[in-house]
């Protein structure tokens, strides 16, 4: 790992990295993330780096966006040069709503990644999509271009819940889109759920789970609603129009998800993610959770290469202007201290079904693990084999377990 940089140090105009970072890149795998910041409308709970046409005010163009991303990709190719990675293991196109771009543009971006570094023969290539932003024809175009996995934002099957979240698709559109993706030949299809929305009943969430299972997908993500400052949902709660989410309700919903998905043949592999098989797990997210390297393309995207972490300017107009001037869009970069790296490693790997090796903990952390074991939060057989693996109850209290392992 390169020597520590001052926190938030500016990124060089040419985007260059310390030599030690480029020598280490790809040792644990290499992925590419592409951020597409456009949305047709803003959901009330969302605080992601996304923009509607009105919010952009004409300052950036969907039509030219693929070319702008390809310009950053060319810069990335120059920065890494002939050093590894020589193959890209995973690509994840997220947003925003990536499928607001024409399918041909998403295909061009993927082809550019392949030209720059080469896609591994078994590369996982994912795009996120809102259900209303895809058609059978666009899905077939994406699949023919090399996309192997699609993640659809369903959130709920209950019309009232979708309305509170300001989701624009109809209650049944997500599962229909999942079936269309299967018909188009996607290897893996994910549906995202959000639980704990004010007004959501237990039977609403049960119906959502039933529809997910019936859609025949092989991956499900389910997240508790988080109310972020600055969102419309947060403003409505401050005004008293809606109640704040309940931790007890969220726990009940999580247990319902585990029961329904387990009965349908899914297994958890990360606290909020279930898959029908090991092959169906999201390899790109596993790359993040296990400390591998990735280059993030797009406004606000984060990257991690050889121990150096940096992030791009957030606004699409500024991002495009930097690249048009031949400069890196990177805003700032840092290297975690050993203590910070250890903390992140524990936080992320403990959330995985594979767990965390006990030998990475210091004496205080081992004492915390023993307390978690005694409290039924860690699985006894795995603990005896030298790993900290959360039980079902431990998953409900994962943050508390992490705090006990990081005294």
UniProtKB/TrEMBL annotation:
Residues 24-267 form the Radical SAM core domain. Its main location: cytoplasm. CDD domains: Radical_SAM (cd01335). The keyword GTP-binding does not apply. Keywords: 4Fe-4S, Chaperone, Cytoplasm, Heme, Iron, Iron-sulfur, Metal-binding, S-adenosyl-L-methionine. InterPro entries: Aldolase_TIM, Coproporphyrinogen-III_oxidase, Elp3/MiaA/NifB-like_rSAM, HemW-like, rSAM, rSAM_sf. It is found in: Cytoplasm. Pfam families: Radical_SAM. It comes from the Bacteria. Probably acts as a heme chaperone, transferring heme to an unknown acceptor. Binds one molecule of heme per monomer, possibly covalently. Binds 1 [4Fe-4S] cluster. The cluster is coordinated with 3 cysteines and an exchangeable S-adenosyl-L-methionine. Belongs to the anaerobic coproporphyrinogen-III oxidase family. HemW subfamily. This is Heme chaperone HemW.
């Amino acid at each position: 790992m390169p020597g520590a940089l001052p926190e938030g140090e500016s990124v060089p105009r040419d985007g260059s990295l310390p030599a030690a970072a480029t020598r280490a890149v790809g040792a644990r795998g290499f992925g590419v993330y592409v951020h597409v910041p456009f949305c047709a409308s803003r959901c009330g709970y969302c605080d992601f780096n996304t923009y509607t046409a009105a919010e952009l005010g004409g300052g950036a163009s969907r039509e030219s966006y693929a070319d702008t991303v390809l310009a950053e990709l060319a810069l990335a190719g120059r920065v890494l040069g002939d050093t590894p990675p020589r193959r890209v293991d995973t690509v994840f196109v997220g947003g925003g709503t990536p499928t607001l771009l024409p399918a041909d543009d998403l295909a061009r971006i993927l082809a550019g990644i392949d030209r720059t570094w080469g896609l591994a023969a078994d590369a996982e290539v994912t795009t996120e999509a809102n259900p209303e932003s895809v058609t059978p024809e666009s899905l077939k175009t994406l699949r023919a271009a090399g996309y192997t996995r699609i993640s659809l934002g369903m959130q709920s099957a209950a019309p009232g819940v979708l309305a509170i979240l300001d989701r624009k698709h109809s209650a049944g559109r997500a599962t229909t889109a999942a079936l269309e993706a299967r018909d188009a030949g996607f290897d893996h299809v994910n549906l995202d759920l959000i639980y704990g929305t004010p007004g959501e009943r237990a039977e609403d969430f049960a119906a959502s789970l039933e529809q997910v299972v019936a859609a025949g997908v092989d991956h499900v993500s389910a997240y508790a609603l988080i109310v972020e400052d600055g969102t419309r949902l947060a403003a409505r709660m401050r005004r008293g129009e809606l109640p704040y989410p309940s931790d007890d309700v969220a726990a009940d919903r999580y247990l319902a998800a585990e029961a329904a998905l387990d009965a349908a043949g899914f297994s958890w592999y990360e606290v909020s993610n279930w898959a029908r098989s090991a092959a169906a797990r999201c390899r790109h997210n596993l790359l993040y959770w296990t400390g591998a390297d990735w280059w993030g393309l797009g406004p606000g995207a984060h990257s991690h290469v050889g121990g150096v972490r940096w992030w791009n300017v957030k606004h699409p107009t500024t991002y495009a202007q930097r690249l048009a001037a031949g400069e890196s869009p990177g805003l700032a970069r840092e290297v975690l201290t050993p203590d910070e790296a250890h903390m992140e490693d524990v936080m992320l790997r403990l959330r995985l079904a594979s767990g965390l090796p006990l030998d990475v903990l210091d004496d205080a952390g081992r004492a915390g693990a023993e307390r978690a074991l005694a409290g039924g939060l860690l699985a006894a057989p795995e603990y005896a084999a030298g790993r900290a693996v959360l039980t079902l109850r431990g998953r409900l209290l994962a943050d508390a377990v992490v705090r006990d392992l990081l005294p």
